[in-house]
Amino acid sequence: MRTQVGIIGAGPAGLFLAHLLRQAGVESVILESRSRAYVESRVRAGVLEAGTVETLSALGLDARMKRECMIDDGLDIRFRGKTINLDLPGLTGQHVVIYGQQEVVKDLIASCISLGQPLEFEAKVTGLTGLDGERPEIHYLQGGEDKVLTCDFIAGCDGYHGVSRAAVPEGKITHYEKTYDFAWLGVLSRSRPLPDMTYTNSDRGFALCSRRSTQVSRLYLQVGADENPEAWSDARFWDELHQRMFDADKVEIVEGEIFQRDVARLRSFIAAPMQYGRLYLAGDAVHITPPTGAKGLNLAVADVRSLAGALGHFYRTSQRDKLARYSEHCLKRVWRTVGYSTRMTELLHKFPEQGAYRRELQFAELDFIHSSRAAQAAIAEQYVGMPYEPI
Ligand code: FAS
Ligand code: PHB
After folding, report:
1. How far apart are CA 67 and CA 97, in angstroms?
2. CB neighbours of 68 closer than 8 A, spacing ≥ 6?
3. Rounded Cα gap, residues 35 and 33, in angstroms
4. 387: cis peptide before it, omega within 30°?
5. For residue 311, which of 3, 12, 26, 118 has the smallest C-alpha distance?
6. Is the CB of 277 under 6 A from ligand 2?
7. Which of 329, 23, 319, 300 is nearest to 155 (CA)?
8. Which ligand number lies closest to the CA of residue 296?
9. How far is ligand 1, taken at its centre, from the CA of residue 159, in Å?
10. How far apart, in whole angstroms, are the C-alpha atoms of residue 125 and residue 132?
11. Cβ(212)–Cβ(98) under 8 Å?
12. Does residue 203 contact residue 247 with C-beta atoms inside 8 Å?
């Protein structure tokens, strides 16, 4: 098979990229190792920044999101009996949208199918060759058969555990990584959510109350790095959440049936540069940001807006100047975003190994934010997201 841009991965990065390239008149093929059902069932992020919403709208793919999403204009942070309430529109003039990543993925896949956008499921990429030539190749296994996709360019959108980053020769890419020794236990429950996004730093650990609809809550607890989600009965989860949300008499948090559980280890990861020869890396394939900042999905979209812009420019003008600066352009946003998510992670989680001194500093910082509009504005501005800068 042959195409202009070979895209590895049908997560948000790969699916948005294919649509943005199509809009620029550039052909692509997406190769996804998993089945459609698996990809559409993966529960992950939920917060869409304005830039992501604008991109869905510009692609004409925002109809269901507009009907079903929730507007998030408040962000609460609870600690030691106090609550910091960030009034997002008052502080930034903006809000964010709550719409599950799996819903975005379903909308994008449905659009690929109705547009006839080539999207191969259960096509596992096994290797990349010719990255420093004119005709790179993607080797993949599908239906028990070895196949090859010949391209002009390859977009590595295959996530942290994908193969594309590993195809870059030793010494041509640098990894920056910090892994925390805790994880987030995430659940979906059939229960009325809190009205606002609510984070908490309690002596028992971090917790977060988010939502997916007026009847479905998305809830997280800080747990051990290797926690088994099945070790958490509904009762155990709810008891722990009440305590961490300072709701010990159980009057505020509404319980319900938990119907989905997952555990995600917290880490920061950046690989630079985000390109090698004809290979361009985007999304979780090249950076992971702690979910505390609700940025992973949004950062992936910002990457592929730039990559689509650079590739569209190349096919229109034969100029490679924008492609040459893709990595440098994206890394500015990546480092700032990982920095914000890291600061929020280190402000809100419990680090037992770092003792009482570190804990008191956390609460001093939270007290300062509680009393300072300027400090609240700084967090709110980063939470709603940096304006997108075209490449
Ligand atoms: P993805 O990982 O979504 O997609 C990569 C795709 O490539 C996958 O479909 C995979 O099957 C495919 N692939 C991998 N190897 C392949 C191969 N060899 N051949 C073909 N295809 C291959 N972000 C938030 O903002 N908030 C959250 O709460 C949050 N929770 C998360 C929970 C978990 C468990 C994980 C892993 C991530 C979470 N994230 C969260 C981050 C997440 O939303 C990512 O940022 C987002 O999925 C990034 O999208 P992609 O870069 O497309 O990568
Ligand atoms: C979510 O709704 O899944 C969510 C919200 C805020 C975060 C992370 C995840 O920081």
Report:
1. 12
2. 99, 103, 213
3. 7
4. no
5. 26
6. no
7. 300
8. 1
9. 5
10. 18
11. yes
12. no
Q: What are phi and psi of 239, to 5 degrees?
A: -55, -45
C-alpha 263 – ligand 1 centre gap (Å)? 14
Measured from the Cα of 303, ligand 1's closest atom is 51
For the chain, domains (ranges, CATH) are: 5-72+95-177+267-350 (3.50.50.60)
Over residues 77-97, the mean pLDDT reads: 96
Ligand number, closest to the Cα atom of 98? 2
Q: Residues 139-186: pLDDT tens digits?
A: 999 999 999 999 999 999 999 999 999 999 999 999 999 999 999 999
Assigned token pair, 129: 């060759």
Model pLDDT, residue 248 = 86
Ligand 1 lining (C-beta closer than 6 Å): 8-14, 31-34, 39, 44-45, 101, 124-125, 157-159, 162-163, 262, 264, 283-285, 291, 294-297, 300
E strands within 94-144?
Answer: 96-98, 119-120, 123-129, 137-142
Which-ligand-closest: CA of 77? 2
* Ligand 2 close to Cβ of residue 337 (< 6 A): no
Ligand 1 pocket test, candidate residues 17, 101, 106, most atoms within 8 A of CB: 101
Closest Cα to residue 6, out of 318, 307, 260?
307
In the predicted model, what is the mean pLDDT of residues 309-326? 98
| CA 161 to centroid of ligand 1, rounded, Å | 9
Strand partners, 205: 202
d(CA 248, CA 242): 5
Residue located nearest, by CA, to atom 7 of ligand 2: 294
Distance in Å, CA 165 to ligand 2 centroid = 26
- The type of residue at 217 is S
